[in-house]
Design brief:
single chain, alpha+beta, 4 helices, 6 strands
Length: 169
Amino acid sequence: MDYLNRVYIALGSNLPNRSAHLMAGREMLRRISAGGWMESPVYETPPVGPAGQGPYFNQVVSFWYDGDPVKLLYYLKGAELILGRKDRGHWNSREVDLDLLFFGQEICAGRPNIPHPQIYNRQFVLVPLNDIAPDWVDPKTNKPVSELLSELLFKEDKIPFRVVKGEDP
């Protein structure tokens, strides 16, 4: 182990049981955490993508990680499969989604693409990310998360967020 990197990962689910899917996702991530665990509240948000989807539960977690970005990406994709994710096409309903947002101060193009290219356009990512890391500086824009969120909210209306309490399905 050369050094630890702070990683940020978005979790999402819009198929029953959403709470159980996110809990299982968090448990898979705790297995590789080298400490410093942080997690946002879980939010229910409207779906993005094709019509007919149910609302999502979304959350962001962060921890110290001692591997490389490619290894982490493969772990995330494998964890999604182990947790029952089925391929329904891009932006469709899913049991669980684990997206790598940031890997330390790395900037990578290709696979993995870091920072995640859609961070800047997704309130359902920036709001929970801002809850746990408002001062984290995005290595690509050199702006803190709080500023990224403010800029997005200036461009578009705030979507409805509901904090999930307990074991909502």
